[in-house]
Design a protein that fits this description.
Layout (H helix, E strand, L loop, with lengths): L1 E2 L56 E4 L3 H10 L2 E4 L15 E3 L4 H5 L6 H12 L5 H19 L4 E4 L9 E4 L2 H11 L5 E4 L6 E5 L2 E7 L2 E4 L2 E4 L8 H6 L9 E2 L8 H9 L3 E2 L4 E5 L9 H7 L3 H4 E4 L5 E2 L6 H10 L5 E5 L3 H4 L6 H5 L2 E3 L2 H8 L3 H9 L4 H4 L13 E5 L2 E6 L2 E2 L6 E3 L5 E7 L21 H16 L2
Helix pairs in contact: 1-16, 3-4, 4-16, 13-14
The structure holds flavin-adenine dinucleotide (FAD).
The site of flavin-adenine dinucleotide (FAD) has 41 residues, from helix 1, helix 8, strand 20 and helix 16.
Length: 485
């Protein structure tokens, strides 16, 4: 018999409050936990293990048509791809299409010789953690990932991402929408794409995965790949991890990263890992492309009109070499961050009275010392930081960096927009999902953000920019492992 909840051997799982995300407002149609583990009202039964009459044998169902699900489907060919929305792509069409590759021909041609070893050497500074074995394998393969994507019609331009010591950010020409269209076009005809079809529950039996509940009925499958995205798009799920303090972050739209995998983890006793690792940006950083710009429009054009300071008064921002890392570190440590703007810019920046920054209010002063004191910062540190900004004349006019500011400086508390999660379901190196006891659940796989980018801990402490390349790589790797079974 099968159950929408685990029987054996996963029945030992007793969901704990801290590790059990609860469905929140942004999380639609997550069925309540059936604590009795009753079978659903669907008439089917599994036959002898391995028999050809066993429902679902040979069937692979992929849950989620974001880039992770698409790439697994691309390399599996024969699969059912479920996407609850009316189009494939998930979050990637809204993304900038930035991908992280080390040692590519573009880098060489532009005079930036790079290598996987050089990227690995930078990893601690980039992500706050040492590279894992999987990270190293991905770095080794990254140039070949780019080469394949180029063979399949994409082109890239190199971009000097402030987090890297040599330019490694490879931007898809045309951005996330072109990347999405290209990957969808690569899907073989043998992939059965089912749009507006939501996986409601995982169905497990005593042998592992038995299928997926769709519209209340069992879609039998002995191989299920969870590619439902991370929990970054769902503030309730982020909050339920217990790792982030309410009010220091908010989930970024769109809500595709709805945490379905994490909720399934809670109901099906699946393990989770690194759920305190997220990629976050100040809400107001303008992000190119689609709805991403809406995020920028909600806040302030920070990169052009302001600089960020942490609670010590140290200045940093996206234009700073360590800005990206420090942003992520700050949010992870729940540190308050402000953006300092020229007071003259306030009316222009606050044209929309509904902006949260307006509601939160700004702290303004006519001297740097006064501002630092009002915010509890070290005035000397703040003064030095502002004075060291070579671009201050264009980014923010401080009327001279001195205590005698002939105008007004305002500090605005920055909200965080969580763009991606670097933790999720606990998977092994190939993407097999493990239960809370650390045992592989037969037939169950996870890729993409649902699996923390595809492998445990590969994003370091605070993650890295351009993780789409890791998602693509790990999705291909998981597809190869599924084919090999
Ligand atoms: C504005 C923005 C800009 C970004 N820019 C970049 C960038 O430049 N570079 C980079 O590396 N990363 C970037 N990211 C992050 C990147 O886009 C994501 O990490 C990546 O797209 C995640 O892919 P995924 O397939 O794992 O998940 P998702 O894209 O979230 O896809 C999951 C899919 O599963 C579907 N789904 C969920 N639950 C179910 C269910 N129960 N049944 C059926 N379907 C379901 C969802 O509808 C969705 O389509 C950005 C993110 C945002 C929001």
């Amino acid at each position: 018999m099968w159950s929408i909840f685990p029987l054996l051997p996963l029945v030992a799982c007793v969901p704990e409050a801290a590790s059990l995300p609860s469905a929140g407002p942004g999380l639609d149609s997550v069925a309540p936990v059936d604590s009795a583990g009753d079978t659903a009202d669907v008439a089917t039964d599994s036959a002898d293990s391995g028999s050809s009459s066993d429902p679902g044998v040979g069937v692979t169902v992929i849950i989620g048509g974001g880039i992770a699900g698409i790439e697994v489907a691309n390399d599996l060919g024969d699969a059912i791809l479920l996407e609850k929305q009316s189009a494939l792509g998930g979050r990637v069409p809204r993304s900038g299409g930035e991908m992280f590759f080390a040692g590519t021909a573009e880098q060489e041609a532009l005079g930036y010789p790079d290598s996987p070893a050089a990227a690995a050497a930078d990893w601690l500074a980039l992500t706050g953690g040492e590279p894992t074995d999987t990270t190293l394998r991905w770095l080794e393969d990254s140039a070949s990932v780019e080469a394949r994507l180029m063979d399949e019609g994409l082109s890239f331009v190199l971009y000097d991402d402030p987090g890297d010591h040599v330019p490694r950010a490879h931007m898809v020409v045309g951005g996330g929408t072109v990347l999405t269209d290209n990957r969808i076009a690569a899907l073989p005809d043998t992939v059965d794409v089912r749009l507006e079809t939501k996986a409601e529950e995982l169905v497990l039996d005593d042998r592992g995965v038995a299928g997926v509940l769709v519209n209340g009925e069992l879609l039998a499958a002995r191989t299920v790949v969870i590619a439902s995205g991370g929990y970054a798009g769902n503030a309730s799920v982020i909050g339920s991890t217990g790792a982030f303090e309410a009010g220091t972050w908010r989930a970024a739209p769109p809500q595709d990263g709805n945490g379905w995998g994490m909720v399934s983890a809670g109901t099906a006793c699946l393990g989770t890992a690194y759920v305190d690792r997220i990629g976050a940006y100040p809400t107001s950083v303008a992000i190119s492309g689609g709805d991403g710009m809406a995020i920028g429009a909600q806040g302030l054009p920070l990169t052009s009109r302001g600089v960020m300071v942490d609670r010590t008064g140290s200045v940093f921002n996206n234009g700073d070499a360590s800005g990206s890392f420090r942003q992520s570190l700050a949010v992870r440590q729940h540190q308050p961050v402000w953006v300092i703007v020229d007071g003259e810019a306030i009316p222009e920046l606050f044209a929309d009275p509904d902006l949260p920054y307006v509601q939160a209010g700004a702290t303004c002063a006519t001297t740097i010392r006064g501002l630092a004191n009002a915010l509890g910062m070290d005035p000397t540190t703040l003064k030095e930081g502002l004075g060291s900004l070579p671009e201050r004349d264009t980014r923010v006019s401080f009327h001279g960096v001195d205590d005698d500011v002939a105008g007004e400086l305002c500090a605005l508390p920055v909200g965080w927009s969580v763009q991606k999660s670097f933790g999720g379901l606990d998977v092994d190196e190939a993407g097999r999902v493990r239960d809370t006891a650390g045992n592989v659940v037969p037939g169950l796989w996870a890729v993409g953000e649902a699996a923390g980018m595809g492998a445990p801990g590969m994003g370091g402490l605070v993650g890295f920019d351009g993780s789409l390349s890791a998602i693509v790589w790990s999705s291909w790797r998981t597809a190869a492992a599924i084919r090999g079974e």
